[in-house]
Amino acid sequence: MSDTMRVTQNSAALSMVQDLESDLSSLTNLQEQAASGKSINQPSDNPTGTSEILSLNAQIGRFQQYATNAQNGLSFLGTASTALESVSTALNQVQTDVLSGANASASDSTSDQDLSQDVLEIKQQILNLAGTTYNNQQVFSGTYGTAPYPQGTASAVSDPTSSSYDPSVAYAYAGSSTPLTRVVAPGESTDVSVTGEQVFGSGSSSLFALLDTISQDLATGNTSALSGTDLQQLQSAMSTVSQATGNVGALTSSVTQSQTNANNTVSNLQAQVGNISDANEDQVATELDLSVSAYQAALETTAQIIQPSLAQFLS
Amino acid sequence: MSDFSELSVALTGLEAEQVGMDTVGQNVANANTAGYVEESVQLGTLGPFAEEGITGVNSQPGDGVQVEGISRLTNTYLQSQSYTQQGLQGSLSAQQTGLQSVQENFPEPAGNGISSELTQYWQDWSNLANNPSDSSAQTTVVQDGSTLAESLNQTSNSLTALSNQTVQNITSTLSTVNQEASQIANLNQSILATNAGTNASSDGSIAALEDQRDELVSQLSSQLGVQVSYNQDGTVNVYSGTESLVSGPNYQQLSLSSSGPPYSLVWSNDQSTYQPSSGQLAGMLDVVNNYVPSYQSSLDQVAQSLMGSVNYLMSTGYDQAGNQGAPFFLGTGASNIEVNPALVSNPDLIGANASATPSGSDATNEDGTVAAEVGELPNSQTATMLVPAGGWSAGGSASSWTSGATTTTGTEADAAYNELVTTVGQQTSSVNNQLTDQQTVTTNVNSALQSATGVNTDQELTNMVMYQNAYEATAKFMSTVDTLLQSLITMVNS
Questions:
Q1: Could you tell me if B410 and B383 are in contact, meaning their C-beta atoms sit under 8 angstroms apart?
Q2: What is the DSSP track for B32-82?
Q3: CB distance from A178 to chain B under 8 Å?
Q4: Cβ–Cβ of A141/B129 closer than 8 Å?
């Protein structure tokens, strides 16, 4: 007997089964990757990669939210902008009324009454615009949830012909001086509103009190006041409104920029997740091919090795 | 030597060849029997009896052949190697089973797990910040908070169930181990009895007993790491750690300690406790004593971080009516975290705003700043947290959060969860790799053992042909002697 290692059929079988099992297990793993398109299907496939994906996904969630917040802010600003444009249009009408009242002859009292009434109606219209809401939130009340001029919309204190008329009560600004904000980037809040106080003022110095005065001056034919202080103050109020419109526009473009940034960040982060988690399809396909061939070869060899036995050759 | 002695020589030959053939038959028949060790016939010449005064040269050819014994092709070195490696593999494969089950509770990173629920929850808070008085935004925060809390409850419960299941498996494995120990002791007893009556190695039945015993020890070794020592009388002692499980015909039992974790095994002889380092029992004990408790405590930290950080911000906030925000979560850990029932019935109590409503005004403050801060929590690795008065064990009652609570800084919930998942992944992957390597080692050792002690059918068939030829030759010899005798008798008679 030579001293080569003794091999028995069972020991050969043990090794072959072990080899087949290991081939099959790598085949299964590749098949899972090919089927899911992901190289990490459970944390143990790549613990570090899993950790990175989890924190990237959390960041993606945040930046998607910043985009949502920005969109919400843009809608808010859009609503404010539309309301302010209507206010501007209405004030232009008042200016026309004032000019025609200032140039009218004293005998023209009927038309003065009409103009006076028209200005009161416009005041009411602007009061309503001041109470504009988006999604049930007040647009011009800052952080407060109630209308900015609740007293002015109905009661006698806002009726300049009434004896209980009191503009300091009727047009007292009831909102907050803090504008609404939206978080549009990590740790970064942006204003998405202008307060009613900034646009319309408060109490006896408010736009509404001015309109009441104009309306009274029209009714009484006070042409000197109309062409003097009334017109002056009206034009100053109009410039305040257009300034507010400009502010809203500036905020809108800033929030739009933030939204674009947030969306870009989301795309970048998603690409990073893809790099870590997506299986490289070409590579997987090639490896799968190789793995199948290796498994088949192992099966064939095993079948051929196990077959021959001396028993077949003994008659 | 008599004239007829050739016949008796031939007879011993025929008998010996027959024993050889029987052994081949036995070997081939048991080629696939687990634990069967190949047997071989030891033949020896019979005689001649030395004649006095004559050395070196026998004048007689001898009296034939005798069967000196049937020996087993044992290899105690490889055998004990096999027991050791099977023990290591048993431990790793029990750990792998446990860790795979643990990992199934963390379906990451596909995004079906707690991580995506956390992300959704934080987004809900940001949406609430955008409209703090909106009741649907409030309800969404409460509902998704409940979903998140339930997922934590569920994960914690599954881990507990896994631990309980593993304890059951330990108990049933122990009863198998005890049964095997008693069977090994019984076989030792039978071997002793058989040896007392007959020549040690000539009886095939002892080989069968030894085969059975070795196979039992082999099965035992993957359940509980053992060392084996072989006694002169043919019996074995089986040790695990410092105690002997089987000592000749005697054995003792192992049971599981009544309380835990940590659980340990208890020897029946002296009631001492034992932590095996190898075998499935060691792996399963590792799962219930170390892996699962450490994951449970990490999961508790996730839940506590969530409760602590959200409740802290709530305590700085004001609800829609201008009152201080109520605690959002109640609970002591992952197993019982829940959304404060007061908020479930009235989501308006969420302290979403940084300032209270100004006094003497009809206005309500809706700045949503605190809700926005909650939404921003996942941006940092750490967070300020409230710890309930009286510690976490008191966290189930709302009052422990509102008066006397203290603050601390800890890992933020997403980061804590990420750490937990990564640890589970790393430990599972490490055990997977170790097991793959161990399987190769075990297979190699078992294959070497099989090579040394198993049946090689080609060799057996070769032996068969040898015995067959020898038998034919001996028979031919016998018939030749017969012919010689016939002719002698015929000559005498004529």
A1: yes
A2: T-TT---EEEEEEEE-PPPPTT--SS-SS--SEEEEEEEEE---HHHHHHH
A3: yes
A4: no
pLDDT digits (tens, 9 = 90+) for B191-243: 988 877 654 444 557 888 888 999 999 999 999 999 999 998 889 999 999 99
Strand partners, B410: B383
Cβ pair A190, A182 in contact under 8 A = yes
Letter for the amino acid at B426?
Q
Phi-psi label, residue A37: left if phi above 0, alpha if psi -120 to 50, beta otherwise: left
Say whether B365 and A145 touch across the interface (CB within 8 A): yes
Q: Give B34's contacts (C-beta < 8 A, 6+ positions apart).
A: B215
Pull the structure tokens for residue B11. 């007879």
**Bridge partners of residue B238, in order along the sequence:** B228, B246
Kindly state the DSSP code that residue B378 receives in the 8-state scheme: G
What is the largest distance, in Å, between two alpha-carbon atoms of chain A? Answer: 143
Q: Are B69 and B13 in contact (CB under 8 A)?
A: no
Interface of A with B in 194-253 (CB under 8 A): none
Tokens 């109490």 label which residue? A203
Q: Does residue B162 contact residue B295 with C-beta atoms inside 8 Å?
A: no
pLDDT tens by residue, B380-415 = 999 999 999 999 999 999 999 999 999 999 999 999
- Apex A55 CA angle, A49 and A57, nearest 5: 95
pLDDT digits (tens, 9 = 90+) for B307-329: 999 999 999 999 988 899 999 99
Give me the residue label for tokens 């300032």.
B355
Question: Distance between CA atoms of A194 and A177, rounded to whole angstroms?
Answer: 9
Residue B409: enclosing H or E segment and its boundaries? strand B406-411
Closest by Cα among B240, B424, B419, B397 to B331: B397
Three-state secondary-structure class, residue A123: helix
**Cβ neighbours of B461 in A, within 8 Å:** 309-311, 314
Beta-bridged to residue B266, according to DSSP, are B255, B273
Q: What is the pTM of this model?
A: 0.86
Q: Please give the angle made by the CA atoms of A264, A270 and A272, to the nearest 5 degrees.
A: 105
- Considering only residues 435 to 454 of chain B, which have any Cβ-Cβ distance to chain A shorter than 8 Å? 436, 439-440, 443-444, 446-452, 454
Furthest-apart CA pair in chain B: how many Å? 155
The rounded distance, in Å, linking the Cα atoms of A22 and A30 is 13
Residue partners of B417: CB distance under 8 A and separation at least 6:
A54, B114, B115, B118, B302
